[in-house]
Amino acid sequence: xxxxxxxxxxxxxxxxxxxxxxxxxxxxxxxxxxxxxxxxxxxxxxxxxxxxxxxxxxxxxxxxxxxxxxxxxxxxxxxxxxxxxxxxxxxxxxxxxxxxxxxxxxxxxxxxxxxxxxxxxxxxxxxxxxxxxxxxxxxxxxxxxxxxxxxxxxxxxxxxxxxxxxxxxxxxxxxxxxxxxxxxxxxxxxxxxxxxxxxxxxxxxxxxxxxxxxxxxxxxxxxxxxxxxxxxxxxxxxxxxxxxxxxxxxxxxxxxxxxxxxxxxxxxxxxxxxxxxxxxxxxxxxxxxxxxxxxxxxxxxxxxxxxxxxxxxxxxxxxxxxxxxxxxxxxxxxxxxxxxxxxxxxxxxxxxxxxxxxxxxxxxxxxxxxxxxxxxxxxxxxxxxxxxxxxxxxxxxxxxxxxxxxxxxxxxxxxxxxxxxxxxxxxxxxxxxxxx
Length: 436
Known about the structure:
Helix content is 34%, strand content 21%. The protein has 13 helices and 17 strands. The two termini are 51 Å apart.
């Protein structure tokens, strides 16, 4: 290990124990990391998922850092935290191109434009990730139409244009004017949604060194939005954004607006001056891994695949014999394959775990119990804990599997490939393994 001055930035990787860090920690370092561990990750988290979808029944916000008998350990977040005049960088263990590939698969768009330079220059890690996430959401939202908003305009004259406004016309006639007041609905790009998007684009563009970072399609769309709301619009409040109404076609723009607001209002992205204030930006890689596994599962089978969110499932571990509608212990596996119409059962369940699967750690006890509960409650014949392929050496849960539960289900603990096509092929084989 090398020693480091107090004021230097500390750079580590996610899912990495302290024993693998490249720096030797002093007493002051430990105290500083302890203060970061007490911070609430929610205030720094950048996600394209609206708050109402982040409702799975599991620890919502795990600590940025955790400490056990073996020292500090990073977890599911990557990004930057500025705290007490110092900076903590948490880099992706699987490299930024892997994270970009996951985002591309999740959103079905190309995260890095073909004309863009993949060298990244001197951009900070978090700028690259924020720009990649924003590009993905904007590209998906704009695949059908721009975020137009209907407004009602009133006109006064001798002809009716649209619908007659009887009350306003009566007041006008009372003044002696012989005309009428009519109203009509018009589509406009002048809206809080587009103001937030242009504001976020302005912040990201000031940080990106490559002028082609958006891609041609998004650049063309941003040109139309700037003409409508201006090149430097005032960032709307969250309250104004929440009042915007969307059609089924433009619903994706709500997620784009919420993500844009987080970006445009984030201090880390707007300021470069060092200070003792606490600010930062984090991305939850465990959430991305879960959604990547969901995407690959849906591509690997013709059966119905359901994301186990609180909005889609109402399953419980226990049911009251006195009041049958009462349940205890909500169960939300990440992926259900071949669920019944009421989601009370499924042919297979998958739960994604963004953790290393290696000995001596192996499968965490709580994860083992969780998977067994899923297989029993959903009466599944197959259940899988899906880990990312990080370490090259196999571990005993993989070598000795599959495992049989007392209820007759087949449980497996496997590391999935981190590339889209390889992961789909792997899961396709896993789905068919009980059919041979």
